[in-house]
Amino acid sequence: MSKTKIECINSDLIRELDPEGRLNIGLCLQCGRCSSGCTMRRETDVLPHQLNRMATLGMKNEMLHSRHIWLCASCQTCVSRCPMRVDTPAMIDRLRTMATEAPEELSRIRTFHESLLSSVSRFGRVYEFGLMGIYKIKTRDFFSDHRKFLTMLRKGKMRLLPPRSSGRGAISSIMSKIRRAGR
Amino acid sequence: MKYAFFPGCSLESTANDFMVSTLAVARALGIELEEIPGWTCCGSTAAHATDALLAASMAARNLALAQDMGCDVIVCCAACYGRLAAGNLAIAESAKMREDVAAAIGRDYDGSVKVRHFLQILKDDIGLSEITTAVEGETPGHTSKGLDGLKVACYYGCLLTRPKELSILDDPENPQLMEEILAATGAEPVEWPYKTECCGASFSITRTDTVKTLVGEILDMAKQSGADCIAVACPLCQTNLDLRQQDVEESRGQKVDLPVFYFTQLLGRALGIPENDLGISKLITDPKRVLARYR
C-alpha cells in the first residue's frame, strides 16, 4: 500500500461515492462505534470506520479491492449507531456497483445477487427453486445443502413451479426503461 | 378494518406458514386483508445493492397499486416492510427520484401511501387489551389461558429495526413491541441482549459457516436467557434460525432444540386457532414439547 498523506481529505472520491451529498462520509469521527457492532467484524479485512477513513483519504483502489464491500451483511447497525449518521452501507452499495469484479472466493455472493434479480426480472416475483438451480449451475456447487432442499420440499416450503402473477412482465419492463434512460 | 395486503415472495413459498397464520389471526380479530392485485417483488432482492432507482421503482409500483385501493398497506415480511418504506422515503424526499420513478413505472407516485407492519396494526389498531379479551374468550372457565407462562425470546433482527428512519420500533436497540403483543396472550417474554443482532440471513446460501456462527450465538443467548422458544417477524430470520439450527446441532454433536415460531403462530395458538390452520407442522425444529402444556 502506498504512503498516503493523512492530512489531506480527498473530496473527489467522496463526491464520486456520494454524488448527491447525502451519506455524510466526510463527517466520520473515527469513534469506532460502527466497527464494534459490525456483524462481520470477525471475518472482514477492513472495519467500517476504516473504510470511512479510506474514503476520505482517496484510497479508491484499496476500497474496491477490500473483501469488506462483499462481506457487508447490510444489517445497518453501523449507520444506526453512528453519531454523525455516516451511511457506510449505502457507500458500500455504491462501491459494489463500481467494482468490476469480486475477489474469487467471494464471487458467489455477487452471483447470488445476480441470480435473484434475474429471477425477479423473469417472473415478477422470486422463484426460489429456479433461482437455486441457476445459482448452483453458475457456481458449479451442486451438492451443498441438498438435504436442506429435501427438508424444504418435504415441509412444502419450496414450490417447484414458478409463481404466477399478473405483474409478471412489470419488473423487466421497469428494468429496460431504466436501462434505456441511460442510468 | 380493511388493509391492502402485500404478502411478498417469501410468504408464497418458504414462509407459507407465516402466510396462513397471518390470515387466520386476521380473520379471528376482524382484520380484513385484501391482497394487492398483481403485486411484484418489493425490491429487496439485491436491487438496493445495485441500483437505487430500480429499488425505489420496484417498491413504488406496488405502492401505486395500493393507492388505488384507498387504504393503508399491511406487510408481514420484515424485508418487504423495509424496502417499501425505504421506497416511500426516497420518493418523498427527492423530486428527482419521484420523476425518475414515474418514468420507470409509467405513472406518478408521490410516496404517501402508509406502509405498516402487522405488529403495528395489532398494537395500534386492535389494541393489547382487545387481544387479551379475545384470548380469554377462547378459554372460558379454564384456570390457565392462552400461552400462560410460555417463555419466549422475541427476535427482531435487522429489518424492522434499522435504519432508524424506517424502524417500526419505539427503541431500536431494545424494542418491546412483539413482547407487548405476546404478553397480552399470557406468554412471558424474556429479556435478552441479542434481539436486534443480525442473523446473517443474506449469506445463508453463500457463506454458510459465517451464518452458523451467528445463528449459534443467537440461539445460545436465547437459551441462556431462559427461553423455551423464539418468536420472529421475518421470513429470512425464521428460515435461517430454524434451518441452520440443524447445522449448528450437527457440528456441535448436541441438540439446541429451540423452536422458532412466527409471532402470528403463537398468537393464533393463544386465540384457539387449530394448529393445522397455523402451519405449525411446517416448523423444522419440533415445537410439540413446548406446546404440549397448552393443549
Word description of this protein:
The complex is a heterodimer of chains A (183) and B (295). Helix content of chain A is 51%, strand content 0%. By secondary structure, chain A is an all-alpha fold. Chain A has two domains: 11-98, Fumarate Reductase Iron-sulfur Protein, Chain B, domain 2; 104-180, no CATH class. In chain A, helix 8 (107-123) runs antiparallel to helix 9 and helix 8 packs across helix 11 (170-180). The longest helix of chain A has 17 residues, at 107-123. Chain A is globular and about 60 Å long. The mean pLDDT of chain A is 88. Chain B has a four-stranded parallel β-sheet, sandwiched between helices. In chain B, strands 6-5-7-8 form a four-stranded parallel β-sheet, with helices on both faces. Chain B has helices spanning 9-12, 16-28, 47-50, 52-69, 78-93, 95-105, 118-126, 128-137, 177-183, 208-224, 235-252, 263-270, 288-291, and strands at residues 2-6, 32-35, 73-75, 115-117, 151-155, 188-189, 229-232, 260-262. Chain B is globular and about 55 Å long. Chain B has two domains: 2-117, Glutathione S-transferase Yfyf (Class Pi), Chain A, domain 2 (Up-down Bundle); 141-294, Rossmann fold (3-Layer(aba) Sandwich), CATH 3.40.50.11810. Chain B starts with a strand and ends with a helix. In chain B, helix 4 (52-69) crosses helix 6. Classes of the chains: A mainly alpha (183), B alpha/beta (295). Chains A and B meet through helix 6, helix 7, helix 8, helix 9 and helix 10 of A and helix 1, helix 3, helix 4, helix 6 and helix 10 of B.
